[in-house]
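Internal tracking record. Fields below are filled automatically when a chain is submitted to the structure queue. Please do not edit lines marked as system-generated. If the sequence contains nonstandard residues, flag them in the REMARKS field before resubmitting.
Queue: standard
Priority: normal
Entity type: single polypeptide chain
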Amino acid sequence: MIKRLFKTGNSVVISLPREVLDSLGVKNGENVNLELDQKRHRLIVSPLKKDQAVKSLDEDFARQVNDFIEKYKPALDELAK
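SYSTEM-GENERATED OUTPUT FOLLOWS
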C-alpha cells in the first residue's frame, strides 16, 4: 500500500484507511504506539492495550487530574445529574 505524506500545521501526517484501523482494532482519537525500526527503515504502528494507555500517562498529570476531581467533586456531581 502506497500512501502520500502531507503537512498539517507543523506536522507531517499519513492517513490510515478504514480497513487498516479496523484490522488494528483502533478508532479515530485513540492512542497507538509508534516504533521506528531504523535497520529496516520501517515505522511500526501497534494498538495500545488499555493498561498500556494508562501507564503512558504522566504521573504528575494524573495527580493533577485527581486533585482537580477531589477539589471540585461536589460541582462535578451536580453537573453529572
